[in-house]
Amino acid sequence: MTSYIELFDRAAALARAGRLDEAFKAYNRILRQDPGNAQARYRIAVVELMRGRTREGIKLLETGLKTHPDDPDILFSLGRAEMSQGAYEGATGHLVRAADRAPDRADIRTALGDVHFLQGALEPALRIYQAASDLSPDDPRIKVNMANAYSRLGDHQKALSAIEDARTLAPDRPEIAFAHANTLRASGDLDAARALIDKLLTDSPDDIALIAFKAEILDRAGETQAAAKLLTPLLVTNPVPHALARACGQIAINSKQGDLPPGDVADLVERAIAAPNLHRFERRGLLFMQAALLQKAGRTEDAFATCSRANAEAAVNYDKDQINRRFDRYQNTFSLARLPKLSRSTVADATPLFIVGMPRSGTTLVEQILDSHPDVAGGGELGGIPGAARTLSDYPDTLESLNADDLDTIAGDYLTMLGDISDTARFVTDKMPINAEHLGFIWQLFPHARVVHCRRHPLAIGLSCYFQNFRTGNEFAFSLDAFAHYYRHYDALMQHWKETLNLPIHELRYEQMVAHPRESIEDLLGFCDLPWDDACLAFDANPRFVDTLSYAQVRQPLTREPAARHLKYATQLAPLVEALADEIARYEAEA
Q1: Coil, strand or helix: which one is 490?
Q2: Is the pLDDT of residue 110 over 70?
Q3: What residues are paired with 451 via a beta bridge?
Q4: What are the structural domains of the chain?
Protein backbone atom coordinates (compact mmCIF):
# COMPACT_ATOMS: atom_id res chain seq x y z
CA MET A 1 0.00 0.00 0.00
CA THR A 2 1.27 3.44 -0.93
CA SER A 3 2.05 5.56 2.11
CA TYR A 4 0.85 9.13 2.65
CA ILE A 5 4.45 10.28 2.36
CA GLU A 6 4.72 8.74 -1.11
CA LEU A 7 1.37 10.21 -2.16
CA PHE A 8 2.42 13.67 -0.99
CA ASP A 9 5.80 13.36 -2.71
CA ARG A 10 4.13 12.34 -5.98
CA ALA A 11 1.64 15.23 -5.83
CA ALA A 12 4.40 17.69 -4.97
CA ALA A 13 6.49 16.49 -7.93
CA LEU A 14 3.53 17.05 -10.26
CA ALA A 15 3.12 20.58 -8.92
CA ARG A 16 6.83 21.36 -9.38
CA ALA A 17 6.62 20.07 -12.96
CA GLY A 18 3.76 22.44 -13.69
CA ARG A 19 1.23 19.63 -14.07
CA LEU A 20 -1.17 21.45 -11.80
CA ASP A 21 -4.41 19.74 -12.76
CA GLU A 22 -2.85 16.36 -12.02
CA ALA A 23 -1.40 17.68 -8.75
CA PHE A 24 -4.85 18.97 -7.77
CA LYS A 25 -6.35 15.51 -8.38
CA ALA A 26 -3.53 13.80 -6.50
CA TYR A 27 -4.04 15.92 -3.37
CA ASN A 28 -7.80 15.38 -3.60
CA ARG A 29 -7.24 11.62 -3.61
CA ILE A 30 -5.37 11.98 -0.32
CA LEU A 31 -8.23 14.07 1.06
CA ARG A 32 -10.81 11.49 0.06
CA GLN A 33 -8.88 8.85 1.98
CA ASP A 34 -8.36 11.16 4.95
CA PRO A 35 -10.96 14.00 4.99
CA GLY A 36 -9.35 15.62 8.02
CA ASN A 37 -5.87 15.90 6.49
CA ALA A 38 -5.07 19.61 6.96
CA GLN A 39 -1.83 19.38 4.97
CA ALA A 40 -3.66 18.06 1.90
CA ARG A 41 -6.22 20.89 2.17
CA TYR A 42 -3.40 23.41 2.41
CA ARG A 43 -1.66 21.94 -0.64
CA ILE A 44 -4.88 22.04 -2.65
CA ALA A 45 -5.21 25.75 -1.80
CA VAL A 46 -1.64 26.37 -2.98
CA VAL A 47 -2.26 24.54 -6.25
CA GLU A 48 -5.42 26.60 -6.79
CA LEU A 49 -3.31 29.74 -6.42
CA MET A 50 -0.74 28.36 -8.86
CA ARG A 51 -3.54 27.62 -11.34
CA GLY A 52 -4.60 31.28 -11.23
CA ARG A 53 -7.76 30.48 -9.24
CA THR A 54 -6.85 33.04 -6.60
CA ARG A 55 -10.32 33.54 -5.18
CA GLU A 56 -10.80 29.81 -4.64
CA GLY A 57 -7.34 29.47 -3.13
CA ILE A 58 -7.94 32.30 -0.68
CA LYS A 59 -11.25 30.78 0.44
CA LEU A 60 -9.57 27.46 1.13
CA LEU A 61 -6.77 29.13 3.07
CA GLU A 62 -9.25 31.14 5.13
CA THR A 63 -11.11 27.94 5.96
CA GLY A 64 -7.87 26.29 7.03
CA LEU A 65 -6.97 29.28 9.18
CA LYS A 66 -10.13 28.85 11.25
CA THR A 67 -8.93 25.50 12.55
CA HIS A 68 -5.20 26.28 12.48
CA PRO A 69 -4.96 30.03 13.28
CA ASP A 70 -1.26 29.91 14.12
CA ASP A 71 -0.05 27.89 11.13
CA PRO A 72 2.75 30.00 9.54
CA ASP A 73 2.42 28.25 6.16
CA ILE A 74 -1.27 29.13 5.88
CA LEU A 75 -0.64 32.69 7.07
CA PHE A 76 2.25 33.06 4.62
CA SER A 77 0.35 31.75 1.60
CA LEU A 78 -2.74 33.78 2.47
CA GLY A 79 -0.66 36.93 2.84
CA ARG A 80 0.99 36.41 -0.53
CA ALA A 81 -2.34 35.69 -2.22
CA GLU A 82 -3.90 38.85 -0.75
CA MET A 83 -0.86 40.84 -1.83
CA SER A 84 -1.35 39.67 -5.43
CA GLN A 85 -4.89 41.04 -5.27
CA GLY A 86 -3.79 44.39 -3.88
CA ALA A 87 -5.31 43.68 -0.45
CA TYR A 88 -2.23 45.07 1.27
CA GLU A 89 -3.72 45.65 4.72
CA GLY A 90 -4.87 42.04 5.04
CA ALA A 91 -1.63 40.75 3.55
CA THR A 92 0.43 42.75 6.03
CA GLY A 93 -1.59 41.47 8.98
CA HIS A 94 -1.25 37.82 7.97
CA LEU A 95 2.45 38.09 7.14
CA VAL A 96 3.24 39.86 10.42
CA ARG A 97 1.49 37.04 12.28
CA ALA A 98 3.39 34.47 10.23
CA ALA A 99 6.71 36.18 11.02
CA ASP A 100 5.85 36.23 14.73
CA ARG A 101 5.18 32.50 14.69
CA ALA A 102 8.15 31.59 12.50
CA PRO A 103 10.78 34.28 13.20
CA ASP A 104 13.55 32.32 11.49
CA ARG A 105 11.86 32.10 8.08
CA ALA A 106 13.41 34.47 5.57
CA ASP A 107 10.73 33.78 2.93
CA ILE A 108 8.02 35.21 5.21
CA ARG A 109 10.02 38.36 5.91
CA THR A 110 10.78 38.77 2.21
CA ALA A 111 7.07 38.64 1.38
CA LEU A 112 6.40 41.22 4.10
CA GLY A 113 9.05 43.43 2.49
CA ASP A 114 7.31 42.97 -0.85
CA VAL A 115 4.03 44.30 0.59
CA HIS A 116 5.79 47.46 1.72
CA PHE A 117 7.60 47.76 -1.63
CA LEU A 118 4.35 47.54 -3.60
CA GLN A 119 2.85 50.30 -1.45
CA GLY A 120 5.83 52.58 -2.06
CA ALA A 121 7.17 52.27 1.50
CA LEU A 122 10.67 51.63 0.20
CA GLU A 123 12.76 52.34 3.27
CA PRO A 124 10.71 50.03 5.54
CA ALA A 125 10.86 47.43 2.76
CA LEU A 126 14.66 47.66 2.73
CA ARG A 127 14.86 47.19 6.47
CA ILE A 128 12.73 44.06 6.23
CA TYR A 129 14.72 42.73 3.25
CA GLN A 130 17.92 43.24 5.24
CA ALA A 131 16.47 41.27 8.14
CA ALA A 132 15.51 38.50 5.71
CA SER A 133 19.00 38.54 4.22
CA ASP A 134 20.52 38.26 7.68
CA LEU A 135 18.45 35.09 8.17
CA SER A 136 19.36 33.72 4.74
CA PRO A 137 22.57 35.44 3.55
CA ASP A 138 23.05 33.06 0.62
CA ASP A 139 19.65 33.74 -0.98
CA PRO A 140 20.27 35.84 -4.12
CA ARG A 141 16.56 36.62 -4.58
CA ILE A 142 16.56 38.78 -1.45
CA LYS A 143 19.53 40.73 -2.82
CA VAL A 144 17.55 41.27 -6.03
CA ASN A 145 14.64 42.68 -4.03
CA MET A 146 17.01 45.02 -2.23
CA ALA A 147 18.46 46.17 -5.55
CA ASN A 148 14.96 46.94 -6.84
CA ALA A 149 14.16 48.99 -3.75
CA TYR A 150 17.42 50.93 -3.91
CA SER A 151 16.80 51.64 -7.61
CA ARG A 152 13.34 53.02 -6.85
CA LEU A 153 14.90 55.26 -4.19
CA GLY A 154 17.43 56.53 -6.72
CA ASP A 155 20.41 55.09 -4.84
CA HIS A 156 21.90 53.34 -7.85
CA GLN A 157 25.28 52.72 -6.24
CA LYS A 158 23.74 50.59 -3.49
CA ALA A 159 21.40 48.96 -6.02
CA LEU A 160 24.35 47.87 -8.15
CA SER A 161 26.21 46.64 -5.08
CA ALA A 162 23.22 44.51 -4.03
CA ILE A 163 22.70 43.00 -7.48
CA GLU A 164 26.41 42.25 -7.83
CA ASP A 165 26.19 40.36 -4.54
CA ALA A 166 23.30 38.39 -6.01
CA ARG A 167 25.33 37.57 -9.14
CA THR A 168 28.22 36.40 -6.97
CA LEU A 169 25.87 34.07 -5.10
CA ALA A 170 24.23 32.75 -8.30
CA PRO A 171 26.50 33.44 -11.30
CA ASP A 172 24.79 30.89 -13.55
CA ARG A 173 21.16 31.73 -12.94
CA PRO A 174 19.70 33.61 -15.91
CA GLU A 175 16.88 35.22 -13.89
CA ILE A 176 19.49 36.86 -11.62
CA ALA A 177 21.41 38.07 -14.68
CA PHE A 178 18.13 39.48 -16.02
CA ALA A 179 17.62 41.35 -12.75
CA HIS A 180 21.19 42.68 -13.07
CA ALA A 181 20.33 44.07 -16.51
CA ASN A 182 17.24 45.73 -15.05
CA THR A 183 19.34 47.38 -12.33
CA LEU A 184 21.83 48.59 -14.93
CA ARG A 185 19.01 50.08 -16.99
CA ALA A 186 17.60 51.89 -13.97
CA SER A 187 21.05 53.37 -13.26
CA GLY A 188 21.28 54.71 -16.82
CA ASP A 189 23.94 52.28 -18.05
CA LEU A 190 21.95 51.23 -21.11
CA ASP A 191 24.94 49.85 -23.01
CA ALA A 192 25.87 47.44 -20.22
CA ALA A 193 22.22 46.42 -19.76
CA ARG A 194 21.86 45.74 -23.48
CA ALA A 195 25.10 43.73 -23.60
CA LEU A 196 23.92 41.53 -20.75
CA ILE A 197 20.51 40.95 -22.37
CA ASP A 198 22.14 40.13 -25.71
CA LYS A 199 24.26 37.53 -23.93
CA LEU A 200 21.16 35.97 -22.40
CA LEU A 201 19.41 36.02 -25.79
CA THR A 202 22.28 34.03 -27.27
CA ASP A 203 21.26 31.12 -25.05
CA SER A 204 17.49 31.78 -25.26
CA PRO A 205 16.78 33.58 -28.56
CA ASP A 206 13.01 33.02 -28.36
CA ASP A 207 12.53 34.19 -24.78
CA ILE A 208 9.75 36.77 -25.05
CA ALA A 209 10.60 38.46 -21.76
CA LEU A 210 14.19 39.02 -22.91
CA ILE A 211 13.09 40.33 -26.30
CA ALA A 212 10.61 42.69 -24.67
CA PHE A 213 13.22 43.96 -22.24
CA LYS A 214 15.69 44.62 -25.05
CA ALA A 215 13.00 46.60 -26.87
CA GLU A 216 12.48 48.74 -23.79
CA ILE A 217 16.22 49.42 -23.58
CA LEU A 218 16.28 50.43 -27.25
CA ASP A 219 13.35 52.76 -26.68
CA ARG A 220 15.09 54.32 -23.68
CA ALA A 221 18.14 54.90 -25.88
CA GLY A 222 16.01 56.69 -28.50
CA GLU A 223 16.04 53.75 -30.94
CA THR A 224 12.26 53.46 -31.03
CA GLN A 225 12.06 52.16 -34.61
CA ALA A 226 14.51 49.36 -33.84
CA ALA A 227 12.46 48.50 -30.75
CA ALA A 228 9.27 48.35 -32.80
CA LYS A 229 10.90 46.13 -35.42
CA LEU A 230 11.92 43.72 -32.67
CA LEU A 231 8.38 43.51 -31.27
CA THR A 232 6.24 43.50 -34.44
CA PRO A 233 6.49 39.71 -35.06
CA LEU A 234 5.24 39.10 -31.49
CA LEU A 235 1.97 41.03 -31.78
CA VAL A 236 0.08 37.78 -32.58
CA THR A 237 1.29 36.11 -29.36
CA ASN A 238 -1.47 34.54 -27.29
CA PRO A 239 -1.59 34.23 -24.33
CA VAL A 240 0.22 37.53 -23.83
CA PRO A 241 2.95 37.74 -21.19
CA HIS A 242 2.86 40.90 -19.09
CA ALA A 243 6.39 41.87 -20.17
CA LEU A 244 5.44 41.81 -23.87
CA ALA A 245 2.28 43.89 -23.36
CA ARG A 246 4.21 46.45 -21.32
CA ALA A 247 6.98 46.79 -23.91
CA CYS A 248 4.61 47.02 -26.89
CA GLY A 249 2.46 49.59 -25.12
CA GLN A 250 5.48 51.68 -24.15
CA ILE A 251 6.85 51.79 -27.69
CA ALA A 252 3.43 52.45 -29.28
CA ILE A 253 2.79 55.36 -26.90
CA ASN A 254 6.24 56.91 -27.35
CA SER A 255 6.54 56.48 -31.10
CA LYS A 256 5.80 59.50 -33.23
CA GLN A 257 5.92 57.52 -36.49
CA GLY A 258 3.37 54.87 -35.59
CA ASP A 259 6.05 52.18 -35.71
CA LEU A 260 3.69 49.77 -33.94
CA PRO A 261 0.03 49.76 -35.08
CA PRO A 262 -1.87 51.28 -32.09
CA GLY A 263 -4.95 49.15 -32.77
CA ASP A 264 -2.99 45.90 -32.74
CA VAL A 265 -1.15 46.94 -29.59
CA ALA A 266 -4.40 47.90 -27.87
CA ASP A 267 -5.78 44.42 -28.66
CA LEU A 268 -2.58 42.84 -27.32
CA VAL A 269 -2.75 44.82 -24.07
CA GLU A 270 -6.44 43.96 -23.66
CA ARG A 271 -5.62 40.25 -23.94
CA ALA A 272 -2.91 40.65 -21.31
CA ILE A 273 -5.26 42.48 -18.94
CA ALA A 274 -7.74 39.61 -19.21
CA ALA A 275 -5.18 37.03 -18.09
CA PRO A 276 -6.57 35.21 -15.00
CA ASN A 277 -3.31 35.01 -13.05
CA LEU A 278 -2.20 38.61 -13.57
CA HIS A 279 -0.92 40.33 -10.45
CA ARG A 280 -3.05 43.33 -9.50
CA PHE A 281 0.01 45.59 -9.61
CA GLU A 282 0.65 44.45 -13.18
CA ARG A 283 -3.00 44.86 -14.18
CA ARG A 284 -2.99 48.41 -12.87
CA GLY A 285 0.05 49.25 -15.03
CA LEU A 286 -1.51 47.77 -18.16
CA LEU A 287 -4.76 49.66 -17.58
CA PHE A 288 -2.86 52.94 -17.40
CA MET A 289 -1.05 51.93 -20.57
CA GLN A 290 -4.32 51.11 -22.32
CA ALA A 291 -5.70 54.50 -21.30
CA ALA A 292 -2.68 56.22 -22.84
CA LEU A 293 -3.10 54.22 -26.07
CA LEU A 294 -6.76 55.19 -26.29
CA GLN A 295 -5.89 58.81 -25.61
CA LYS A 296 -3.32 58.75 -28.39
CA ALA A 297 -5.97 57.33 -30.72
CA GLY A 298 -8.28 60.27 -29.87
CA ARG A 299 -10.84 58.13 -28.02
CA THR A 300 -11.10 60.48 -25.05
CA GLU A 301 -14.20 58.99 -23.39
CA ASP A 302 -12.84 55.44 -23.55
CA ALA A 303 -9.41 56.66 -22.42
CA PHE A 304 -10.78 58.43 -19.34
CA ALA A 305 -13.03 55.48 -18.42
CA THR A 306 -10.07 53.09 -18.66
CA CYS A 307 -7.93 55.48 -16.64
CA SER A 308 -10.60 55.59 -13.95
CA ARG A 309 -10.49 51.78 -13.82
CA ALA A 310 -6.71 51.94 -13.42
CA ASN A 311 -6.91 54.44 -10.58
CA ALA A 312 -9.57 52.37 -8.84
CA GLU A 313 -7.37 49.29 -9.24
CA ALA A 314 -4.54 51.16 -7.51
CA ALA A 315 -6.73 51.47 -4.39
CA VAL A 316 -4.49 54.24 -3.02
CA ASN A 317 -5.50 55.79 0.30
CA TYR A 318 -5.27 59.59 0.43
CA ASP A 319 -5.51 60.97 3.95
CA LYS A 320 -6.84 64.53 3.81
CA ASP A 321 -6.46 65.09 7.55
CA GLN A 322 -2.82 64.08 7.45
CA ILE A 323 -2.18 66.42 4.51
CA ASN A 324 -3.97 69.27 6.30
CA ARG A 325 -1.77 68.82 9.35
CA ARG A 326 1.42 68.56 7.31
CA PHE A 327 0.89 71.77 5.38
CA ASP A 328 -0.27 73.65 8.48
CA ARG A 329 3.00 72.71 10.15
CA TYR A 330 5.02 74.05 7.21
CA GLN A 331 3.31 77.41 7.41
CA ASN A 332 3.53 77.56 11.22
CA THR A 333 7.21 76.64 11.33
CA PHE A 334 8.12 79.18 8.68
CA SER A 335 5.74 81.96 9.74
CA LEU A 336 7.03 85.52 9.75
CA ALA A 337 6.90 85.49 13.54
CA ARG A 338 9.03 82.33 13.91
CA LEU A 339 11.41 82.89 10.99
CA PRO A 340 13.97 84.89 13.06
CA LYS A 341 14.25 81.95 15.48
CA LEU A 342 15.45 79.61 12.74
CA SER A 343 19.16 79.09 12.19
CA ARG A 344 20.75 79.01 8.74
CA SER A 345 23.85 77.20 7.62
CA THR A 346 27.10 79.01 6.88
CA VAL A 347 27.42 77.19 3.53
CA ALA A 348 28.16 79.67 0.74
CA ASP A 349 28.09 77.06 -2.04
CA ALA A 350 25.55 77.98 -4.74
CA THR A 351 25.91 74.75 -6.75
CA PRO A 352 22.42 73.35 -5.99
CA LEU A 353 19.77 74.51 -8.46
CA PHE A 354 16.37 73.28 -7.32
CA ILE A 355 13.58 72.67 -9.84
CA VAL A 356 10.23 72.27 -8.11
CA GLY A 357 6.54 72.13 -8.97
CA MET A 358 3.70 69.70 -9.19
CA PRO A 359 4.44 66.42 -11.00
CA ARG A 360 3.78 66.75 -14.74
CA SER A 361 4.36 70.52 -14.65
CA GLY A 362 7.43 70.46 -16.90
CA THR A 363 10.22 69.87 -14.38
CA THR A 364 11.89 67.20 -16.54
CA LEU A 365 11.76 69.46 -19.59
CA VAL A 366 13.32 72.36 -17.68
CA GLU A 367 16.10 70.13 -16.37
CA GLN A 368 16.73 68.81 -19.89
CA ILE A 369 17.12 72.40 -21.14
CA LEU A 370 19.46 73.36 -18.32
CA ASP A 371 21.53 70.17 -18.62
CA SER A 372 22.11 71.08 -22.28
CA HIS A 373 24.09 74.12 -21.07
CA PRO A 374 27.82 73.40 -20.61
CA ASP A 375 27.82 74.93 -17.12
CA VAL A 376 24.98 72.77 -15.77
CA ALA A 377 24.72 69.07 -14.88
CA GLY A 378 21.32 67.47 -14.51
CA GLY A 379 21.05 65.44 -11.33
CA GLY A 380 17.51 64.14 -11.83
CA GLU A 381 15.12 63.49 -8.95
CA LEU A 382 17.46 63.43 -5.98
CA GLY A 383 16.25 62.12 -2.65
CA GLY A 384 18.69 64.13 -0.55
CA ILE A 385 16.34 66.79 0.79
CA PRO A 386 13.30 64.58 1.53
CA GLY A 387 15.68 61.95 2.90
CA ALA A 388 17.29 64.43 5.28
CA ALA A 389 13.83 65.60 6.38
CA ARG A 390 12.82 62.01 7.19
CA THR A 391 15.82 61.58 9.49
CA LEU A 392 14.59 64.47 11.67
CA SER A 393 11.98 63.47 14.21
CA ASP A 394 8.94 65.73 14.34
CA TYR A 395 9.85 67.49 11.07
CA PRO A 396 9.36 70.38 10.33
CA ASP A 397 8.80 71.55 13.94
CA THR A 398 12.21 70.22 14.95
CA LEU A 399 13.95 72.60 12.51
CA GLU A 400 13.74 75.33 15.15
CA SER A 401 16.07 73.32 17.38
CA LEU A 402 18.82 72.90 14.76
CA ASN A 403 21.85 75.16 14.96
CA ALA A 404 24.18 76.28 12.19
CA ASP A 405 26.55 73.36 12.78
CA ASP A 406 23.71 70.85 12.39
CA LEU A 407 22.62 72.49 9.16
CA ASP A 408 26.20 72.67 7.86
CA THR A 409 26.52 68.90 8.34
CA ILE A 410 23.30 68.15 6.46
CA ALA A 411 24.22 70.59 3.69
CA GLY A 412 27.71 69.08 3.44
CA ASP A 413 26.32 65.58 2.95
CA TYR A 414 24.03 66.88 0.21
CA LEU A 415 26.87 68.70 -1.55
CA THR A 416 28.95 65.51 -1.47
CA MET A 417 26.15 63.79 -3.36
CA LEU A 418 26.13 66.61 -5.93
CA GLY A 419 29.90 66.27 -6.28
CA ASP A 420 29.44 62.64 -7.27
CA ILE A 421 27.24 63.84 -10.13
CA SER A 422 29.65 66.55 -11.26
CA ASP A 423 32.57 68.27 -9.59
CA THR A 424 33.08 70.77 -12.41
CA ALA A 425 29.62 72.15 -13.27
CA ARG A 426 28.64 75.54 -11.91
CA PHE A 427 25.17 74.21 -11.16
CA VAL A 428 23.84 70.71 -10.47
CA THR A 429 20.06 70.48 -10.73
CA ASP A 430 17.78 68.64 -8.35
CA LYS A 431 14.37 68.28 -9.97
CA MET A 432 12.51 66.50 -7.21
CA PRO A 433 9.00 68.01 -7.45
CA ILE A 434 8.16 67.34 -3.79
CA ASN A 435 10.92 69.75 -2.77
CA ALA A 436 8.22 72.38 -3.19
CA GLU A 437 7.18 71.30 0.29
CA HIS A 438 10.73 71.70 1.61
CA LEU A 439 11.73 75.17 0.40
CA GLY A 440 11.86 76.41 3.98
CA PHE A 441 14.36 73.67 4.85
CA ILE A 442 16.31 74.46 1.66
CA TRP A 443 16.35 78.15 2.68
CA GLN A 444 18.00 77.11 5.94
CA LEU A 445 20.52 74.76 4.32
CA PHE A 446 21.61 76.81 1.31
CA PRO A 447 21.41 80.59 1.75
CA HIS A 448 22.65 81.12 -1.83
CA ALA A 449 20.51 78.53 -3.61
CA ARG A 450 18.21 79.34 -6.52
CA VAL A 451 14.84 77.76 -7.24
CA VAL A 452 12.99 77.31 -10.52
CA HIS A 453 9.27 76.86 -9.96
CA CYS A 454 7.57 75.10 -12.87
CA ARG A 455 3.93 76.01 -13.31
CA ARG A 456 1.25 74.70 -15.65
CA HIS A 457 -2.51 75.04 -15.93
CA PRO A 458 -4.08 73.19 -12.97
CA LEU A 459 -6.40 71.20 -15.25
CA ALA A 460 -3.51 70.13 -17.47
CA ILE A 461 -1.54 68.94 -14.45
CA GLY A 462 -4.59 67.23 -12.96
CA LEU A 463 -5.36 65.33 -16.16
CA SER A 464 -1.75 64.31 -16.71
CA CYS A 465 -1.35 63.12 -13.11
CA TYR A 466 -4.59 61.16 -13.32
CA PHE A 467 -3.27 59.33 -16.40
CA GLN A 468 0.09 58.42 -14.80
CA ASN A 469 0.93 55.18 -13.08
CA PHE A 470 3.08 56.64 -10.33
CA ARG A 471 5.03 53.80 -8.76
CA THR A 472 5.62 55.47 -5.42
CA GLY A 473 4.27 58.54 -3.67
CA ASN A 474 1.94 61.12 -5.22
CA GLU A 475 -1.09 59.56 -3.53
CA PHE A 476 -3.13 62.61 -4.58
CA ALA A 477 -2.87 61.63 -8.25
CA PHE A 478 -5.28 58.68 -8.11
CA SER A 479 -8.51 60.65 -7.78
CA LEU A 480 -9.65 64.07 -8.95
CA ASP A 481 -10.94 64.93 -5.49
CA ALA A 482 -7.59 64.12 -3.88
CA PHE A 483 -5.74 66.07 -6.56
CA ALA A 484 -7.86 69.16 -5.95
CA HIS A 485 -7.28 68.92 -2.21
CA TYR A 486 -3.51 68.58 -2.55
CA TYR A 487 -3.22 71.22 -5.28
CA ARG A 488 -4.92 73.84 -3.10
CA HIS A 489 -2.40 73.16 -0.33
CA TYR A 490 0.55 73.20 -2.74
CA ASP A 491 -0.59 76.45 -4.37
CA ALA A 492 -1.09 78.16 -1.00
CA LEU A 493 2.29 76.95 0.27
CA MET A 494 4.14 78.26 -2.78
CA GLN A 495 2.49 81.63 -2.20
CA HIS A 496 3.56 81.44 1.45
CA TRP A 497 7.18 80.77 0.49
CA LYS A 498 7.21 83.80 -1.80
CA GLU A 499 5.84 86.01 0.97
CA THR A 500 8.16 84.83 3.74
CA LEU A 501 11.49 83.56 2.37
CA ASN A 502 14.17 85.73 0.81
CA LEU A 503 14.85 82.89 -1.60
CA PRO A 504 15.29 83.62 -5.31
CA ILE A 505 12.43 81.82 -7.10
CA HIS A 506 11.94 81.99 -10.88
CA GLU A 507 8.48 81.05 -12.11
CA LEU A 508 8.38 79.33 -15.47
CA ARG A 509 5.03 78.59 -17.12
CA TYR A 510 4.78 75.55 -19.36
CA GLU A 511 2.38 77.24 -21.77
CA GLN A 512 4.71 80.20 -22.15
CA MET A 513 7.65 77.88 -22.74
CA VAL A 514 5.79 76.08 -25.51
CA ALA A 515 4.57 79.28 -27.18
CA HIS A 516 7.81 81.26 -26.88
CA PRO A 517 10.69 78.86 -26.20
CA ARG A 518 13.56 81.20 -27.00
CA GLU A 519 12.31 83.99 -24.75
CA SER A 520 11.49 81.58 -21.92
CA ILE A 521 14.90 79.95 -22.06
CA GLU A 522 16.63 83.33 -22.17
CA ASP A 523 14.75 84.36 -19.02
CA LEU A 524 15.63 81.05 -17.35
CA LEU A 525 19.34 81.37 -18.15
CA GLY A 526 19.28 85.02 -17.08
CA PHE A 527 17.89 84.03 -13.69
CA CYS A 528 20.83 81.63 -13.33
CA ASP A 529 23.35 84.24 -14.56
CA LEU A 530 24.27 81.91 -17.40
CA PRO A 531 25.18 83.04 -20.93
CA TRP A 532 23.04 81.98 -23.86
CA ASP A 533 23.92 78.65 -25.47
CA ASP A 534 22.20 77.35 -28.60
CA ALA A 535 22.26 73.81 -27.19
CA CYS A 536 19.54 74.81 -24.72
CA LEU A 537 17.13 75.46 -27.59
CA ALA A 538 18.06 72.11 -29.16
CA PHE A 539 17.49 70.24 -25.90
CA ASP A 540 15.82 67.34 -27.73
CA ALA A 541 19.23 66.40 -29.15
CA ASN A 542 20.64 65.95 -25.65
CA PRO A 543 21.43 62.19 -25.32
CA ARG A 544 21.45 62.12 -21.49
CA PHE A 545 19.61 59.33 -19.69
CA VAL A 546 16.33 60.53 -18.18
CA ASP A 547 14.81 58.27 -15.54
CA THR A 548 11.35 59.80 -15.22
CA LEU A 549 7.97 59.22 -16.86
CA SER A 550 8.76 62.08 -19.26
CA TYR A 551 11.87 60.48 -20.76
CA ALA A 552 10.34 60.16 -24.24
CA GLN A 553 8.80 63.64 -24.33
CA VAL A 554 12.09 65.45 -23.69
CA ARG A 555 13.56 63.77 -26.76
CA GLN A 556 10.96 65.56 -28.90
CA PRO A 557 10.77 69.23 -29.95
CA LEU A 558 8.23 71.37 -28.12
CA THR A 559 4.64 71.11 -29.28
CA ARG A 560 1.52 72.91 -28.10
CA GLU A 561 -0.71 69.81 -28.19
CA PRO A 562 0.04 68.49 -24.65
CA ALA A 563 -0.52 71.96 -23.19
CA ALA A 564 -4.11 71.99 -24.45
CA ARG A 565 -4.96 68.30 -24.00
CA HIS A 566 -7.18 68.98 -20.99
CA LEU A 567 -9.57 70.97 -23.21
CA LYS A 568 -10.66 67.67 -24.79
CA TYR A 569 -11.81 66.39 -21.40
CA ALA A 570 -14.10 69.23 -20.38
CA THR A 571 -16.92 66.93 -19.29
CA GLN A 572 -14.73 64.53 -17.32
CA LEU A 573 -12.80 67.35 -15.60
CA ALA A 574 -15.90 69.32 -14.59
CA PRO A 575 -15.51 68.29 -10.90
CA LEU A 576 -11.96 69.62 -10.97
CA VAL A 577 -13.07 72.88 -12.56
CA GLU A 578 -15.51 73.40 -9.70
CA ALA A 579 -13.11 72.36 -6.94
CA LEU A 580 -10.25 74.55 -8.21
CA ALA A 581 -12.28 77.50 -9.48
CA ASP A 582 -10.26 80.10 -7.56
CA GLU A 583 -6.88 78.60 -8.39
CA ILE A 584 -7.75 78.26 -12.07
CA ALA A 585 -9.05 81.82 -12.26
CA ARG A 586 -5.90 83.18 -10.63
CA TYR A 587 -3.60 81.14 -12.87
CA GLU A 588 -5.38 82.27 -16.02
CA ALA A 589 -5.48 85.90 -14.86
CA GLU A 590 -1.75 85.89 -14.09
CA ALA A 591 -1.02 84.43 -17.52
Answers
A1: helix
A2: yes
A3: 354, 505
A4: 320-590 (3.40.50.300)
